[in-house]
Amino acid sequence: MATSEYSLEKKSETEKTAEMWGDLLNFLKSKGFEAEVKTQFKIKPVATDSTSKLGMIGKNRSVIQNILWKQSHILSQKLREDFSLGKTTDKRIDLSLLDGSLSEYAKEKEDSVELVKSTRKRL
Amino acid sequence: MEKDILGKQIIGLISMLTLLEVIDVIRHRITERTNKVTLDLMDEPSKNLYVRTETEKKIKEMIDILTLMESQGFIVFADFTPLDLKQIMSDVYDYSRNYFGMVRKYFNCQICHNPLEHYSYKGLGWIDLLHAFLAVGLFADGLITADKGFGHLSTDQKFSGLKITVI
Fold first, then answer.
1. Does B89 contact chain A (CB < 8 Å)?
2. In the A/B pair of chains, how many CB contacts fall below 8 A?
3. Which of B25, B83, B81, B114 is closest to A111 using CA atoms?
4. What is the rounded CA–CA span in Å between residue B97 and residue B114?
5. What is the pLDDT of residue B126?
6. In this structure, what DSSP letter does residue A56 have?
7. Looking at the whole model, is its pTM more than 0.80?
8. 3-class secondary structure, B68
9. Is pLDDT larger for residue A113 or for residue B91?
10. Structure letter (DSSP) for residue B154
11. Domain annotation covers residue A81
């Protein structure tokens, strides 16, 4: 009896995981990442201790980071276009001018600034 | 912290929400800190045009620097594409429902600084929580903020993977 109950519970968990995995893949496809899903999701889904979709994505950090990296360049170019700025390719940033400026921005915003979130690794 | 970013020890991750909030702050601060006499001398449309022009100049300057940093790999812009916003908003709602900051007594007016005893609620708002949940969803290792209220999150299991630094 105990074994049977255990099996049922395991099956249920597996089904649940598979369902969440399917949701995640569909979600990424719906966002236009069909190619990424095909090439990068050929890894076995791992059950997580979290039942949230967020936890599920958490097991695929590198995939999301690849998407982020790609989107970042697109977004950056769009921002430059929106604000009538030229292309960045011919310009180099003067690091000495930037030293201290991030802290200054943060000090400027007194209430709820959340200026920079960091990642330790290169995306 | 910027030394770590410029030294490429860490990569700054700037969400669109952060960018929107900073743009909003620039608008407010320029309006508040423009010389009152300068604005008094203008009619309504001129005031708006003046502040708008000054604001756009600063925002453009900021976008120029940030996009240059992006192109050189110091920072990354994150839009909402890889995120399940429905899930994240649901997480924000659940957290907000059970969260309460604190009621604090103040002795001076926060605008004119003259003596004025009053109480004020201090705590994380829904946008603050959204920042934190976005950071988790975007796999940030840390969250850098000037808001002391975020310190509360560092004790919460949900944010155990997120190093919160209050500068």
1. no
2. 195
3. B25
4. 35
5. 92
6. H
7. no
8. helix
9. B91
10. G
11. yes
CA–CA separation, B72 and B154 (whole Å): 31
Confirm if B66 and B108 have CB atoms less than 8 A apart. Answer: no
CA A15 to chain centre: 25
* In contact, B52 and A73? CB cutoff 8 Å: no
A27-68 pLDDT, tens per residue?
777 777 666 666 555 433 443 444 344 444 445 566 666 777
Q: Do B67 and A85 touch (CB under 8 A)?
A: yes
Measured between CA atoms, how close is A8 to chain B, in angstroms?
28
Residues of A in contact with B138 (CB under 8 A): 64, 68, 117
Phi, psi of B110 (to 5 degrees): -75, -15
**How far is B85 from B95, CA to CA, in rounded Å?**
15
Evaluate whether B68 touches A86 at the Cβ level (below 8 Å). no
Distance CA B94, CA B86 (A): 12
Is A119 inside a domain boundary? Answer: no
Q: How is residue B153 written in tokens? A: 């999150």
Q: Which two tokens stand for residue B45?
A: 């449309």
Q: What is the pLDDT of residue B125?
A: 92
Q: Give the C-alpha separation, A31 to B99, whole Å.
A: 32
Q: Helix axis angle, B16-33 relative to A101-108, nearest 10°?
A: 70
Task: Please give the C-alpha separations between residue A101 and each of A66, B3, B150, in angstroms, as whole numbers.
Answer: 28, 10, 22
A61 contacts: CB under 8 Å, gap ≥ 6: B139
B15: left (phi over 0), alpha (psi -120 to 50) or beta: beta
Q: Which of A20-24, B147-151, B152-156 has the lowest mean pLDDT?
A: A20-24
Spell out where chain B has E strands: 11-15, 75-78, 102-108, 115-122, 142-145, 163-166
Q: CB of B166 within 8 Å of any CB in chain A?
A: no
Domain count for chain A:
1
